[in-house]
Amino acid sequence: MNWRLLAKRQWPLALSLAGIVIAETGSISTAAGWWQIPGVLVICAISVLAPRRPFDAALALTFAIVCTALYMRFLDVAFEPHFFVSGANISMTGAAMATIAILVRESSHLRAIAGTVLVVAAVIAAEVLGWPVVSAREYRNWQPDYTSYLFGACIMLVLALGTGLYFRARDNERASQLAASVAAAQNSERMALARELHDVVAHYVTAIVVHAQAGQLNREVDVLPSIAASGTEALTAMRRLVGTMRDGESAGPAASSSLMDDVRALAAESGLPVRLSFDLQDAVPQELARSVLRLVQESLTNTQKHAAAVSSVDVSLSSSDGVLHLAVLDDGVASGVPVGGSGGYGLVGMRERAELLGGTFSAGRREPTGWTVRADLPIS
């Protein structure tokens, strides 16, 4: 724990102990009694610094309490004011309770038990060492009620242990919530990257495979420029994706100011017989336009991969009442084995993308042949 965090966390305890020590000085009746101040200050300082190394703080506190009680006994003076009957005063007892609470909160079970036993033993030793001085000067032959003393001491020990256990449970709960939040964020990032890889790179790789197959079937067709262009686009998409992972910037396609122009460019790149229809009554935000492009791109990629004998692909974009409507319809026949295989994630990714935007998505076969993709996305 760094010093700034320690100060932020421990200042209430430091102020409380300082206030108690200042109040205790008003009850000191002899010049020799002022010798309790150095030891008490050391004990309180150890308690405030305990979160840095709780078990070591418990050991140091034990040593400090015993040493302070010994030299006070050697000087034949008692702590003032006495807490309960004799020995440890209020600030020393409060510091011991705070240290036990911190120890239980942050240390392992074995260290918490051992440290608590040592601190309690040190406080008992201070009481025992201080009792002869107190009884001789203040109580003479009067014997204290040890039952009441033991009951009060147990209450204070239970309060210290209970406080430590409460904050330990809170820390564990907070750690579990943080771990769950981190796992959810990591899963969200993985899903976003998976969608980008599937929607962007797979689109261009599919185009490469389709053009290569066309070249194999018809040697006279020059497919190399198309393959080179698709390869270049795939590399650009990969660089954009890597840049996103490094810098946290958007990995979406670079949408221009005109969604219609971007859709026309996608249609031209696909090499499919695409017919476009636009009826956009509302301005489309850039982020929404980027997602629409992804949906159109993945729909055209699916047509390339899964359909044969495609004579037309109808892409329509319209808006009304603040909702953008997208429809992509083709009349192709299922080709059996898709180009390059299929991981089955295309429709899943499109559905997730639409739902993240608060919209709806549907896809299915159309009669007599073909496939339909529809998405309704809120504009605002």
Automatic annotation (TrEMBL):
Record domain Histidine kinase/HSP90-like ATPase: where: 290-379
Record's keyword terms, sorted: ATP-binding, Kinase, Membrane, Nucleotide-binding, Phosphoprotein, Transferase, Transmembrane, Transmembrane helix, Two-component regulatory system
GO CC list: membrane
Pfam families in UniProt: HATPase_c, HisKA_3
Top EC group: transferase
Catalyzed chemical reaction(s): ATP + protein L-histidine = ADP + protein N-phospho-L-histidine
GO molecular function: ATP binding; phosphorelay sensor kinase activity; protein dimerization activity
Domain Signal transduction histidine kinase subgroup 3 dimerisation and phosphoacceptor: 189-248
Membrane spanning stretches: 57-75, 81-104, 116-134, 146-167
Enzyme Commission code: 2.7.13.3
Name of this protein: histidine kinase
